[in-house]
Amino acid sequence: MAKYKLDKSVKYAKTHEWVRIEDGVAVIGVSDYAQDALSDVVYVDLPEVGDTVTAGKQAATVESVKAAEDVYAPVSGEVIEVNTALEDTPEIINERPYDAWFFKVRPTDALEQELAALMEPEAYDKYVEELE
Amino acid sequence: MLQRTPLYEIHVALGGRMVEFAGFELPVQYPPGPTVEHHAVRTAAGLFDIDHMGQFELAGPDVVEFLQQIQVWDVEQMAEGDAHYSLLCYEDGTVVDDIFLYRLPGRWLMVVNAANRAKDWAWIEHHLGRYDVALIERSDDLAMLALQGPKAEQILQKLTDYPLHTVATRTAIETQIGGLHVIAGRTGYTGEDGFELYAPVDRVVDFWNLLLEAGKEEGLLPCGLAARDSLRFEACMPLYGHELSAKITPLEARLGWTISWSKPFIGRDALLKVRLEKPERLLVGLEMIDKAVPREGYPVAVDGKIIGHVTSGMKSPTLGKFLAMAYVPTEHSAVGAKVDVIVRGEPKQAVVVKRPFYKPRYK
Fold it and tell me: What DSSP state is assigned to residue B356?
């Protein structure tokens, strides 16, 4: 992928979210392709700590100069932390999409199954190439 | 089939993201992104390809009389070299288009919106009637660029001997710039000082490159449609299809200042009636109290009842606030009035604030 950065340590959803498992917690953000397609991000509507999110369902909204886009939870679980830094500096999503996580989820027993349904970096790379 | 401006290949080479706008393929942004481009215009300068805009030339013995009839501003007040914003109105007082008029030696130039070019032409032609006026389509032989920002004069001065500090806001000159014969109006659509430049279409690629090169040290950036929109939005300049349309009168849009009531013009009777009876709705500026991005088409509500809609909205890059323009009933239009903007089904508090959001900084 010449055009977009790829993080090899995460798995990807078709809707361009990434998930990284850190000490049993799922950390969720959006891909470099997603931030580029969005253009400049100006606001993020995050879930609240304690909310339950469901794989494939809307969990947050990201607003760019172009439009408001839904962010879907790639895995299910309870939101245990949200990235409040995005409230004042949403531009870090454009600058460092794989550092600019949106929220962290304590996953359910379905985690393995849900992760299996996501794409490995190489597969996502190809997927994005075909979208171009 | 989408049209392309002569600068299409340049935009692509600069990494411009091309989108459809008013039948043209134009860059919505370049790699630095709309926010950086926006700030460049507020603090230094930006260069815009606005060749999609239409230009009609009008000349002939009856041209002043004809212009008085078809648009709202009193053109007899305009001296040679003056430029002014105005409106074409239908008989019922609603808006055909918003335009810019230039009085040039021996002729007038009318600049119209790209999306309305064919409609305006037909409408003007329809009213020509007995008037001895030559109406000439210049859109295809004049290319239009905008050089906007506090450094615009300094940059443009490098390319011409004409003393640009003598060119007042809302006036125009014809002179040699970069070896080309150019009409330069001290006008724009950003709320900053700057120039709109009309150059021969066959030389505009060179002209664009010359301008970009001249502005390098000042931080001049090529700017796309997104920055153009956010800049005009902050200055509360209307965009046809949003704040203006064939369903909106200038009085509702708070453009009464463009109307010269002392002369006859098409739509005057209807507008006089609106003026006497007061408009039922008005364009207002809204600032979100709850954090949310208000966008075009979002409903505006009071006590759960929808009272209007957002015409344009965004997070203002200069002010950092979530702002909108919206039409609301006159009784909810006073500064300080509280309303809700319905953002994806949820009411978010907003307050009517003074317009413009950003006070233009003209010379």
Answer: -
